[in-house]
Amino acid sequence: MTHLPDIQSHITKIPHHKNYLKQHSELNVRLQQSKTANQPTWSYIIRKHLTQNAPKDALVIYNQIRRKGQYILGLVPLIFKACTSLSSISDGKALHAEAVKSGADTEVMIGTSLVNMYAKCGDILASRNVFDEMPDRNVVTWNAMIGGYLKHGNTDSAFGLFAQMLERTEVTWIEMIDGLARSGDTVKARILFDKVPVELKNVVTWTVMIDGYASSGEMEAARELFEVMPQRNCYVWSSMISGYFNRGDVKEAQAMFNRIPVRNLVNWNSLISGLAQNGFFEEALEVFWKMQGERIEPDEVTFASILSACAHLGWLDTGKEIHSMIDKKMIKLNQFVLNALVDMYAKCGDLANARSIFEEMVHRNVVCWNSLISGFATHGHCKEALEFFSRMEITNEMPDKITFLSVLSACAHGGFVDEGLEIFSKMENYGLAPGIQHYGCLVDLLGRAGRLKDAYNLIKTMPMKPNDAVWGALLGACRIHADTDMVEQIMEELSALYILFF
């Protein structure tokens, strides 16, 4: 076993999750403390963390191993996977340096892991450098490099490597077809699909090509290929259903679902999420209850979609019933489910529950912040909306245009003029260009405060043409403040524009 200097100072120090000890067995804890644990033992523990989506904990364990002066070659590819999951290129570079120092970087397995890690973390040049310097490569290495290029939209370089490959596997063809289709070049993808050797063209190859068409909105081409497909799996049915939903063809999506001979959870989820995304919220709930009747167990995807339907309908009681089902079935509370719960309670006006779930979340993204801020703003808790926006800034979470729209709306309804003007000016600091809705909120804010001339001047100096909603906000404010002169002025301008337009 090779002994190397501890790299703890180079690896990012990552704190334990607060529920770490609860999530893993006592054996796991003992193994972390053991000085005699061997490679299979450590490999098992680290793999367990990776499969449970806990890459930070995997890195913590690896650091504990390194503190004891142990360097276990078989663990290195697993730790590169952890770095990839975390998009932590700094940790990956530190591990790379360690591999070079030990001479392990010449191993095909290590080199391939490095190619994959750099590509997925966004450094495609470093990935290619590792690839070129490898003394030996296998087909997995080639596939990783090709996949990296395709992920970054560099189809020409991917094609160049593909042409050089002496041995192409099913994975190679699938990577190329999928990457080309997702980059929008379905023509080249189809040319490759037609060239796939018969012995490698299986249900997955067909599914990838059909999904490429469906994802690009080319449903006629997808349907033509689908109808001649020799064998279908659940995923190709779902690709077709989602493709029709994405272009708003709800009727055809439902017809496709009804054709499925044996439906599984993937198919049901495609139908439920598609209905919800197209505004058929009650129908989505009906399908959900029908799914229960057929004894198909819902998962995180199902619950996230159905909670969204409850949120848009404002059906708090049904939402609470769904929440209770999540608890009873011990569904994993991932980011999507937690976001959906916060959004449902916030939209339905149960701000106490929305806030409670939000506060218990370990990781919060902009979607979650937006749901809570919007909920406070919509239901008249304008001060709380501003407070949470301030908290968001303190935590360094980047607000987006939706965040600012909610906060500006809160300022308008709460009469916070100075705060609203300051927040509007902050958009530039975050690299966000205000849209017409943001200007509309600012016009509403100034109008409600009686600053009608300022609101009017803002409309006249907007970088885009004001729409009916913007003028309507000012007209409404004029009526509230009984400024008939400005109403007449606005109506004259609108009439002149109407005549000029027609």
TrEMBL record:
<feature type="repeat" description="PPR">
    <location>
        <begin position="334"/>
        <end position="364"/>
    </location>
</feature>
<comment type="similarity">
    <text>Belongs to the PPR family. PCMP-H subfamily.</text>
</comment>
<dbReference type="GO" id="GO:0009451">
    <property type="term" value="P:RNA modification"/>
</dbReference>
<dbReference type="InterPro" id="IPR046960">
    <property type="entry name" value="PPR_At4g14850-like_plant"/>
</dbReference>
<feature type="repeat" description="PPR">
    <location>
        <begin position="400"/>
        <end position="434"/>
    </location>
</feature>
<feature type="repeat" description="PPR">
    <location>
        <begin position="202"/>
        <end position="236"/>
    </location>
</feature>
<dbReference type="Pfam" id="PF13041">
    <property type="entry name" value="PPR_2"/>
</dbReference>
<feature type="repeat" description="PPR">
    <location>
        <begin position="138"/>
        <end position="168"/>
    </location>
</feature>
<feature type="repeat" description="PPR">
    <location>
        <begin position="365"/>
        <end position="399"/>
    </location>
</feature>
<dbReference type="InterPro" id="IPR011990">
    <property type="entry name" value="TPR-like_helical_dom_sf"/>
</dbReference>
<protein>
    <recommendedName>
        <fullName>Pentacotripeptide-repeat region of PRORP domain-containing protein</fullName>
    </recommendedName>
</protein>
<dbReference type="Pfam" id="PF01535">
    <property type="entry name" value="PPR"/>
</dbReference>
<dbReference type="InterPro" id="IPR002885">
    <property type="entry name" value="PPR_rpt"/>
</dbReference>
<dbReference type="GO" id="GO:0003723">
    <property type="term" value="F:RNA binding"/>
</dbReference>
<feature type="repeat" description="PPR">
    <location>
        <begin position="264"/>
        <end position="298"/>
    </location>
</feature>
<keyword id="KW-0677">Repeat</keyword>
